[in-house]
Amino acid sequence: MQTNSEIYQVEDLKYRITDPTNKWVEVVGVVGEKRIISKVVVPSSVTIGGEDYEVTSIGEEAFEWAERLCSITLPSCVTSIGRAAFSECDSLTSIIIPNSVTSIGEEAFWGCDGLTSITLPSSVTSIGEAAFSCCYNLTSITIPGSVISIGRAAFSNCDSLTSIIIPSGVTSIGEAAFSYCYSLRSITIPGSVTSIGRAAFSYCDNLTSITLLSGVTCIGDCAFCDCDGLTSITIPSGVISIGDCAFSCCSSLTSITIPSSVISIGDRAFEDCYSLRSITIPRSVTSIGNWAFSGCDGLTSITIPSSVISIGEKAFLGCDNLTSITIPSSVTSIGEKAFLFCKNLTSITIPTHITNIDKLGIPEGTRIIRENV
Predict the structure, then answer these.
(1) How far is CA 285 from CA 260, 280, 289, 304, in A?
(2) Residue 34: phi, psi to the nearest 5?
(3) What's the gap between Cα 202 and its chain centre?
(4) Which 8-state DSSP code applies to residue 34?
(5) Which of 19, 155, 244, 356 is placed for a possible disulfide with 266 were both Cys, Cβ 3.0 to 4.6 Å?
């Protein structure tokens, strides 16, 4: 496909020819000062050099910083909205995206403070990186079943977003996709989703309910970190790994169910989950990461299965209320200071082949039982 770099002015808008054969153009900007326009109607076709061209896309940064733009009408022939096309359009309160649009580009509506709701048509298959990030007043959005992927930071910092339904066609949720959505209270992740990206729901302070349907195999690093309102979660069967810091600083988390499919618990996975009282690690788990349960000062008991081979550094550091723990003989290595500041630990059973006992931070006065269990 050939493109033409020349810019053409037709009435109030500027265009670029994107496909001279099919007679396609994209809107690239406005004639005059962008900051003062308030209303735009994009036509379905324009005449350039005596020939008619169909308007099929809104180009990159076409209306960026159009601070007074409050109304825009798009024709049904537009198939794509480019990167930052409407970013920082503070006065834009609503927009109807036609059913012809298949993709919404990166930062397309970034920082549109006035936008309160948006409905995406069933033609859209992908939502770009940071597409609706920092839309502080966005309270609701309808994502159609046609969407396959939600991009990195797509809805991050949408402070007013209280709920969202992720359709069953979505297979991946990008990094930080819903991070800092402070008002988000519940979320259901369908079985079609196989991976939850890094920090996808981090710092969602008021998130109290998460429903994970079977299908997810990996919970990414920091996926739900600092979700202060979260009290419980059931991880579905099929999840293989719990990423680093996945649930760290979830200060209200009291219980969690880990399925027998999980093999590894990442570094700091449950660090500073102050309210966590007990946890059962399934027999599928082979490794417990560094700092995995550090700072869980409400933890009174934990069962380590015979499948575990390694326990990371400072894994249980600062677990003040942990009174006893048994390390199975399957464990071949325990990281330094694993039990540092476990001040109420009265007894610990450690296999005879573990030789670095003096480096484990076991509190003075704790009864140490050398026994292969």
Answers:
(1) 8, 11, 11, 9
(2) -65, -35
(3) 7
(4) G
(5) 244
Predicted pLDDT of residue 345: 96
- Round to whole Å and give the CA distance between 288 and 302: 12
Both structure tokens of 1: 């496909």
Distances (CA, A) of 270 to 24, 55, 293, 299, 306: 53, 51, 5, 11, 21
The pLDDT value given to residue 278 = 84
Determine the average pLDDT of the residues in 177-181. 97
End-to-end CA distance of the chain: 69
Q: What residue has token string 């900007």?
A: 29
Q: What angle do CA 130, 16, 29 make, to 5 degrees?
A: 55
Among 311, 318, 279, 314, CA closest to 297: 318
Beta-strand runs (E) in 144-261: 149-150, 163-165, 172-173, 186-189, 195-196, 209-212, 218-219, 232-234, 241-242, 255-257
DSSP state, residue 232: E
Beta-strand relationship, 51-58 and 45-48: antiparallel
The residues spanned by each domain of the chain are 294-373
- Return the sign of the alpha-carbon dihedral for residues 177, 179, 184, 185: positive
Model's pTM, two decimal places?
Answer: 0.91
Residues 129, 113: Cα–Cα separation, whole Å: 18
Q: Are strands 255-257 and 278-280 parallel, antiparallel or unpaired?
A: unpaired
3-class SS string, 225-240: CCCCCCCEEECCCCCC
List pLDDT tens digits, range 111-128.
999 999 888 999 999 999
DSSP helix/strand/coil, 163: strand
> What six digits make up the tokens of 247?
């649930």
Q: Cβ contacts of residue 365 below 8 Å, gap of 6+?
A: none
Q: 131 with 153: CB under 8 angstroms?
A: no
Record the tokens describing residue 296, joined without a space.
């869980």
And the tokens for 236?
């579905």
Three-state secondary-structure class, residue 359: helix
DSSP 260-325: TT--EE-TTTTTT-TT--EEE--TT--EE-TTTTTT-TT--EEE--TT--EE-TTTTTT-TT--EE
